[in-house]
Design a protein that fits this description.
The complex is a heterodimer of chains A (about 110) and B (about 525).
Chain A (H helix, E strand, L loop, with lengths): L19 H6 L6 H16 L1 H20 L12 H21 L8
Helix pairs in contact in A: 2-3, 3-4
Chain B lengths: L14 E8 L2 H6 L11 E8 L2 E8 L3 E8 L2 H7 L38 E5 L21 E2 L2 H14 L4 E7 L9 H9 L3 E8 L2 H5 L1 H9 L4 E6 L5 H8 L4 H13 L4 E7 L8 H10 L3 E8 L17 H11 L10 E2 L9 E7 L5 E3 H5 L1 H7 L4 H10 L4 H14 L9 H13 L5 H8 L5 H12 E6 L10 H5 L3 E6 L6 E5 H6 L1 H4 L3 H5 L1 E2 L6
Parallel strand pairs in B: 5-7, 5-16, 7-8, 8-9, 9-10, 10-11, 11-15
Antiparallel strand pairs in B: 1-2, 2-3, 3-4, 6-18, 12-13, 13-14, 13-15, 16-17
Helix pairs in contact in B: 3-4, 14-15, 15-16
The chains are: A mainly alpha (about 110), B alpha/beta (about 525).
The structure holds iron/sulfur cluster (2 copies) and zinc ion (2 copies).
One iron/sulfur cluster binds next to loops of chain B.
Chain lengths: ~110, ~525
């Protein structure tokens, strides 16, 4: 019988169920995304329809590429990438309309 | 006064699939012969990590011991849906509440949750081969043969505990075709209320002995052959059987098929040796009339040296996952369900049927998983909905359910008369397209039975996967629900009893109580 302490089936303690010591040593979670969300909201508020036009166009281009690459369904709530595309294109149109004639939250006073 | 706050506890890198009781393979290897009362049941769990299922248990001596349990958590979860109510058993010793495994020293204990679907009688310990992976540890040198009257007494004891009926009797060994009183035994057991009798053989005698084929043909209504068949490569044959004996296997298959004896090919599959030949074995079975079944057994480590890597081995779900790629999509894991009587990790089964257009289709694909579950009563809600919209009359529903339970149980013999009604129900209730089958199944004209037999022999194939457990994969709940029981003899009282197959193979003190070893006498070489 070979030395059982060398048997690969035995899990060394520091590789087993995590213990409190290894837990506190881990780096705390960095909630980077939350900062990004806030910044996006700030830009949207400051730039209004310009930001909407930019991001919606960006999204439309992105989804058009993805669809051409074969993505038929998105994790987006709308599901089918064709619907997502229609939605994004609609947003672009909405933003342009708001820039030209001004309506909704960006009513020209 | 501020104190820096810690981040709290991180998540574990695994998900607990199920909590289990297991055993330490290292302790076992250190002293495989230790008295069963000293075998420790350990707390543990099945952990899903890196897309695989690991069995982890805590041993006071060895700490956390981790071994591979199954290769696909997804398929394992799928199998777990297929459970049905179990049948009552008769304990061998009333009041035996000892823990596993020592409970089995006194036969089936009170805390067993399944009756005996398969009773396995080891007729003798010796064999005409010396397979390196033999779980019976048989060899030409070991020579003890159970007396005929002991075997019959053991069978009759079981009959008395099973309310006068045994579903399946499997004759095994050693090599059962070498049993000196096989003919007398077959006559005696076919006269008893036993639905199906299987002979578990390496096929050497079948390949060579004409009189023996005649004997099988004579009993073919009740007797089927389980023939070891490890694939097409010489490597598989040499690895599992110690020699290239493929030509004997081919001869045996031809002769059995020609004699109209229902045959199941049993394949011992091992990672890196023949795990890529599973598709071939299924194909061979699909193409050969009267080969009505294929059983794939991932090699397990009880018995003679196995050379299995406990961290990377072929498993139940691994076999299932390989089906699709190796059969060109003809069979996939979704075509099989867990055998509903044993623990869902213990066995999976699927039926393939050749329709009138000459295409093989699976029962599950024809019926649909949901409808199958509904018929099996596994999904009460679905069933309730169905009853509400009243599409199937209640009486019909219960007939179909019982038929399916029979079909998915080990008892089902393709040739048994009760199968006719099963096929009738299936054919009548889901447009199978096996019109001829339906016609034949409904008719009760004399002579039709033979035609039904040959039709079933050509058009039906049962595929099963049977992953037996060794100490690296052994969990208690599967033993508790085990339905494959090996005939043993009580070491103290000499009473006939039985115990789960996996337990008997794994623990030497139980293995010594197998009927062949316990009652066996050295052969004299002469037939009585
Ligand atoms: S596996 Fe079967 S054929 Fe091989 S030695 Fe064991 S009993 Fe004989
Ligand atoms: S013999 Fe083993 S694998 Fe088969 S049902 Fe019993 S415990 Fe499960
Ligand atoms: Zn241990
Ligand atoms: Zn069973």
């Amino acid at each position: 019988m070979s030395d059982p302490t060398l048997d690969p089936r035995i899990v060394p303690l520091d590789d087993g169920p995590p213990t409190a010591t290894s837990a506190s040593a881990a780096t705390p979670f960095d909630p980077l995304r939350l900062c990004i969300f806030a910044t996006v909201a700030l830009l949207g508020w400051l730039l209004g329809p310009i930001a909407l036009a930019f991001f919606a166009a960006l999204g439309a281009v992105g989804y058009a590429r993805a669809r051409r690459a074969g993505l038929l369904r998105s994790k987006c709530l709308l599901g089918d990438t064709r619907i997502v595309l229609a939605y994004l294109v609609g947003l672009v149109a909405l933003a342009i309309a708001a820039l030209i004639i001004g309506f909704g939250p960006w009513r020209i006073t | 006064m501020s104190e820096s706050r810690g981040s709290g506890m991180p998540l574990r890198d695994y998900r607990v699939h199920r909590y289990v009781n297991a055993f330490c393979p290292l302790c076992h290897e250190e002293s495989p012969d230790r008295p069963l009362a000293e075998v420790q049941r350990l707390s543990g769990w099945l952990a899903v990590r890196d897309g695989r299922v690991w069995l982890e248990r805590g041993c006071a001596t060895h700490g956390l011991v981790r071994t591979l349990y199954d290769e696909s958590p997804e398929i394992l979860t799928y199998l777990e849906q297929w459970t049905a109510p179990t049948k009552v058993h008769g304990p061998d010793t009333t009041g035996n509440f000892k823990p596993v495994p020592s409970a089995y020293e006194d036969g089936l204990p009170q805390m067993q949750t399944q009756h005996t679907c398969i009773l396995l009688e080891d007729l003798l310990d010796h064999c005409n081969l010396k397979c390196p992976t033999c779980f019976a540890e048989s060899s030409p040198a070991l020579a003890s043969v159970a007396p005929l009257e002991s075997v019959l007494a053991s069978i009759d004891t079981r009959l008395s505990r099973e309310n006068g009926r045994i579903d399946v009797l499997m004759l095994s060994g050693g090599e059962p075709t070498l049993y000196p009183w096989l003919e007398e035994l077959l006559d005696a057991v076919t006269a008893r209320p036993i639905v199906r009798i299987l002979i578990n053989t390496n096929g050497l005698r079948i390949a060579q002995d004409d009189a023996f084929i005649e004997l099988l043909r004579r009993h073919r209504e009740r007797v089927e052959v389980y023939l070891q068949y490890d694939g097409e490569s010489a490597e598989a044959s040499i690895h599992h059987r110690g020699a290239d004996i493929r030509r004997f296997k081919e001869r045996a298959i031809e002769r059995l098929s020609a004699a109209g004896v229902f045959t199941t090919l049993t394949m011992t599959a091992k990672l890196g040796v023949n795990d890529d030949e599973i598709g071939h074995v299924i194909k061979r079975a699909l193409d050969t009339p009267y080969v009505g079944g294929v059983t794939i057994q991932p090699v397990f480590g009880s018995g003679r040296g196995s050379g299995i890597d406990p961290l990377d081995r072929l498993t139940h779900t691994g076999v299932l996952a390989r089906l699709e790629g190796q059969t060109g999509g003809q069979v996939t894991w979704r075509d099989l369900t867990a055998l509903p009587c044993s623990h869902p990790h213990c066995c999976s089964v699927g039926y393939l049927l050749r329709d009138d257009a000459d295409e093989w289709r699976s029962l599950t694909s024809l019926i649909g998983h949901d409808r199958l579950k509904e018929w099996l009563d596994l999904e009460p809600d679905l069933l309730a909905n169905r009853i509400a919209d009243d599409t199937i009359p209640a009486a019909m529903k219960s007939i179909v359910k019982d038929s399916l339970l029979d079909l998915l149980s080990e008892q089902s013999s393709l040739s048994h008369p009760s199968m006719a009604s099963i096929w009738k129900d299936i054919c009548a209730n889901c447009d199978l397209g096996i019109g001829t089958l339906a016609t034949l199944a409904t008719s009760r004209l004399p002579g039709q039975r033979e035609r039904l037999r040959s039709l079933l022999g050509e058009r039906v194939l049962r595929v099963t996967v049977k992953p037996f457990m060794d100490m690296n994969t052994m969990i208690e709940e599967r033993l508790t629900q085990c339905c494959v029981h090996v005939a043993t003899v009580n070491a103290e009282t000499d009473a006939h009893q039985c115990a789960p197959f996996c337990a008997v193979q794994a623990w030497a003190p139980l293995s010594r109580t197998r009927i062949s070893t316990a009652t066996g006498r050295p052969t004299t070489g002469s037939r009585s």
